[in-house]
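// run 5 | inverse folding | seed 20
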């Protein structure tokens, strides 16, 4: 095969092109790798609420922002210890739910909600992956351990796509365990299904942030109280500098590219222009909030502290109106975490397959109680935190707490353990135990989306309509 002979000037141009192209791609990589272009500035909460009211979106009856959150615990619950006695407003909290007594009037225990698409069907094993993959999507996830994952757009992202422009972050995703994006985690199902609740598209999960320090700095900036706003402004300038650098290099090499490469370059630049739009959009926000709290040092050694600090991060995000949509994975589905802090050295998942062994059943009930204690602490702090309308954050929120498995021993997905906390800004009727008699969980999601001002979604997942009596 003959080799093309280049003149010295051609070789110089080739070297210059290669350097320019390499520098451009490096700059572009740095640009795309930046963690949070939405993390700019925000308007005052009242101003944002006014914008939302004008748009008919995500506000309470009194004009305060309405928030939506989803908190997931793994491996189901012990049914006999979970479900209350009585019905309606005349109900008594169960053994597991007893820690919620202080906020009983601000929550609903909901029974009779199902995720039938999490059942085996013809797919065999993999109930843990299906439980979490279906929880916020309502769809049957594709059984694969490869890169061809497929779920559905999750309800939090449906809502975020409508109301996310009102806050610095359309949504926030949090986790109390390391994130896995690939590999076989459950009987031929990808780890992506168990380590992500939120899905931007059927093939794109929204990876949660497990490190509270990184999450805090993403939302509020680095440094101590009083320094963070300047760090955010510096980060904005650095981001803009990278964008300018990339665009300059792009103009330099465009003339040297063939048609196919020019098309690829245009695709890259489309992404860059979207980032620029977000930076320009941020100009309508004021200063970044700077809460008078210490930046978290990182992931705590004790699991209880870890759960508490991630709850606190969600509360701060809502309190500062940094976002109105959030999700938190307390532990991935199928988690075999031990609980030495409550005297249980065995793994949670192993215990959940108790085969009605009384000692194991009691230990799982204690784990369920532990998780509920942390949830109760979070709700109490939400109740104690005043919103812009003088009511509490809990009054102006809708918070789902539950699992995609019902009975972890049998891997069932009917009659899921679900609590709906908050008054929804006056749009919910809390203080009740409501039996819904075998309806899709997706029906509840549609009803909550309606209350967030997102009422133009005719169907979601396996929904059959809106859930009444919430």
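// decoded
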């Amino acid at each position: 095969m003959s080799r093309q002979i280049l003149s010295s000037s051609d070789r110089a141009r080739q070297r210059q092109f290669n350097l320019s192209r390499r520098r451009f791609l490096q700059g572009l990589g740095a640009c795309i790798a930046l963690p949070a272009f939405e993390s700019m500035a925000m308007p005052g909460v009242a101003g944002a609420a006014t914008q939302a009211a004008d748009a008919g979106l995500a506000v309470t009856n009194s004009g305060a922002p309405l928030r939506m959150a989803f908190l997931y615990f793994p491996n189901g619950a012990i049914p006999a210890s979970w479900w209350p006695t009585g019905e309606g407003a005349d109900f008594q909290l169960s053994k597991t739910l007893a820690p919620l007594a202080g906020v009983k009037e601000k929550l609903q225990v909901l029974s009779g909600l199902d995720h039938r698409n999490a059942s085996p069907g013809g797919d065999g094993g993999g109930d843990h992956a299906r439980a979490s993959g279906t929880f916020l999507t309502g769809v049957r996830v594709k059984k694969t351990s490869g890169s061809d994952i497929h779920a559905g757009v999750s309800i939090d992202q449906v809502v975020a796509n409508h109301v996310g422009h009102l806050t610095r972050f359309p949504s926030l995703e949090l986790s109390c365990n390391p994130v896995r994006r690939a590999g076989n985690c459950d009987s031929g199902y990808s780890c992506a299904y168990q380590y992500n609740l939120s899905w931007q598209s059927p093939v794109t999960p929204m990876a949660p942030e497990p490190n509270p320090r990184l999450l805090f700095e993403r939302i509020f900036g680095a440094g101590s109280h009083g320094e963070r706003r300047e760090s955010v402004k510096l980060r904005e300038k650095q981001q803009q500098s990278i964008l300018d650098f990339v665009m300059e290099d792009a103009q330099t090499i465009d003339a040297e590219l063939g048609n196919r490469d020019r098309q690829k370059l245009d695709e890259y630049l489309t992404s860059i222009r979207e980032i620029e739009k977000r930076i320009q959009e941020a100009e309508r926000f004021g200063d970044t909030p700077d809460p008078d709290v210490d930046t978290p040092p990182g992931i705590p050694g004790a699991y209880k502290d870890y759960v508490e600090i991630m709850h606190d991060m969600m509360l701060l995000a809502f309190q500062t109106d940094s976002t109105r949509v959030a999700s938190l994975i307390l532990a991935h589905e199928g988690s075999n975490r031990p609980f030495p802090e409550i005297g249980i050295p065995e793994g949670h998942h192993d215990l959940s397959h108790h085969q009605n062994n009384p000692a194991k059943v009691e230990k799982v009930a204690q784990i369920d109680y532990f998780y509920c204690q942390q949830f109760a602490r979070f709700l109490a702090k939400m109740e104690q935190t005043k919103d812009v309308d003088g009511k509490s954050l809990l009054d102006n929120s809708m918070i789902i707490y539950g699992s995609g498995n019902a009975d972890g021993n049998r891997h069932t997905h009917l009659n899921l353990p679900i609590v709906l906390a908050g008054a929804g800004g006056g749009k919910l009727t809390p203080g009740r135990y409501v039996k819904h008699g075998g309806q899709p969980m997706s029906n509840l999601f549609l009803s909550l989306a309606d209350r967030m001002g997102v009422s133009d979604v005719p169907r979601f997942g396996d929904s059959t309509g809106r859930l009444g009596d919430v």
